[in-house]
Amino acid sequence: MGEILSFWFFATLSVGCALLSLFHKNVVHSAFALMGTLVGVAGLFLLLGADFLAMTQILVYAGGILILILFGLMLTRPEPEERKLGRIWGGIGILGAGTLLFVERVGDKPWFVQAKDLASPEPTVREIGLELLRRDSWLFAFEFASIILLAALVAAAFIARRRFNREEIE
Amino acid sequence: MSLAAYLTVATCLFIIGLVMVAARRNLIYVLMGLELILNAANINFVAFNRFQPGTALDGQIASIFVIILAAAEAAVALAIVLNAHALFDTIRPDDYDTMKD
Asked: pLDDT higher for A100 or A155?
């Protein structure tokens, strides 16, 4: 019972905040609504038994990426808002209906565990740490991710610092 | 809750993110829509991982890598947006048309 209630709470929080950030006219309000979505997704991760991932989600998304987006808002000029929702609603509607139909069919396939047979979730931190550092498992991807992060750090600093001017481009 | 419930939430988030990327005329909104799309993918990873038989955690680890790449992408994309704003004095993607002529 409590699980169903929390699922509906977090699902409504994430989808509702996403809709709010889609339709709101003010960019800053949209960014803060996005924070609601990210926290709701973290709650869904908790319900799915992914405790480490939920905390990572809050730390990296709500703490890092959202701050980056807010800095981007501060450093650029807000524009008069203009939306062209009308011309793509039809395509999006058809796509969404088709996907939801597909989702309904995938959900009760016999190769997935049914909801009533699920084992209760266990702590995942130790397991994830061992998996990430085992040589025949995810070790290469783990080290490669750190190289990518370093490259992105250097590249972001370089691109943001260098000011190109228009003559140079034309 | 069943697997289909989580997949439905992920689908809704994905479509909202897609609309945000396609319909808003502001680069910051495009970035926010991208984050929503990546989050929807993460929910799918974790949900499939939870409802599979067995105790492997590969879905959650793949999801961790998605988060890492999203952080790197956000940093570089923000730097590009700042530079494009300094260059063109606007952040509407429609106005970046130097290559047209």
From this structure: A155
- The structural domains of chain A, with segments of one domain joined by +, span 2-77+121-169
- Of chain B, the percentage scoring pLDDT greater than 90 comes to 39
- The reply to whether residue B50 touches residue A72, judged by beta carbons under 8 angstroms, is no
Kindly tell me if the per-residue pLDDT of A170 is higher than 80.
no
Q: Name residues 26-65 of chain B within 8 A of A (Cβ).
A: 26-29, 31-32, 35-36, 39, 42-43, 46-53, 55, 57-58, 60-61, 63-65
Taking the C-alpha atoms of residue B1 and residue A26, their distance in angstroms, rounded to an integer, is: 35
CATH topology of domain B3-100: Helix Hairpins (1.10.287)
DSSP B4-66: HHHHHHHHHHHHHHHHHHHHB-SHHHHHHHHHHHHHHHHHHHHHHHHHSSS---HHHHHHHHH
Are A99 and A93 within 8 A, CB to CB? no
Q: What is the pTM of this model?
A: 0.88
What pLDDT, in 10s, does the model give residues A25-56? 888 899 999 999 999 999 999 999 899 999 99
Distance CA B92, CA A79 (A): 8
- Cβ <8 Å between B53 and A83: no
Is the CB of A26 inside 8 Å of chain B's CB atoms? no
Q: What is the CATH number of domain A2-77+121-169?
A: 1.20.120.1200
Within 8 A by CB and 6+ apart from A63, the residues are: none
